[in-house]
Write a structure and sequence with these properties.
Number of helices: 3
Radius of gyration: 66 Å
Order of helices and strands: HHH
């Protein structure tokens, strides 16, 4: 260290100090400003990127909320359509049942009317046959009874006896 102090030259020291100051001024003018401006640009770019990311995140949340709302609306619409379809099905079934019931009632009424008409026709035919048989039997009996004069008189007297005046 003694040697450094012995070799110390104040002129050289001042020259080196001046060169150092010039170098600092040049660095500040040509290097420091571009470095600081590029750092500032980078910082601004990072801030803008963060703002853009935040905006994108908010937009994604809005889109997600819109998607959820649309999905909920679609579900409600689907449920409404299914309910309408079920109601329509139930109404169609009920209408078909009512129509079938009415048709069955008509068929039963028609069958009952037909049975009643056939019954009346059968009764009328039976009465007709009974009347014909009665007439035939009466005719035979009367022929037998009226074959002689005595029998005719007895029949007239018995009928007069049975007849009552009102």
């Amino acid at each position: 260290m003694d040697q450094l102090l012995n070799d110390f030259s104040p002129g050289l020291f001042f020259m080196q100090a001046i060169i150092l100051l010039i170098l600092i001024v040049l660095m500040r003018k040509f290097a420091w400003k571009p470095i600081l401006s590029s750092l500032q640009d980078r910082e601004d770019g990072i801030k803008n990127a963060l703002k853009s990311a935040e905006n994108a995140k908010l937009e994604m949340q809005n889109l997600q909320a819109d998607n959820d709302r649309l999905l909920q609306e679609a579900r409600l619409e689907r449920e409404t359509m299914l309910k309408e379809a079920r109601d329509m099905k139930a109404k169609m079934i009920e209408d078909a049942k009512s129509e079938a019931q009415a048709e069955a009632s008509k068929l039963v009424a028609s069958a009952q009317a037909s049975i009643e008409a056939e019954k009346k026709a059968a009764i009328a035919e039976l009465k007709s046959q009974v009347a014909h048989l009665s007439i035939d039997i009466a005719e035979k009996v009367v022929r037998e009874e009226l074959s002689s004069k005595d029998k005719q008189m007895k029949l007239v007297e018995s009928m007069l006896g049975e007849a009552t005046l009102n």
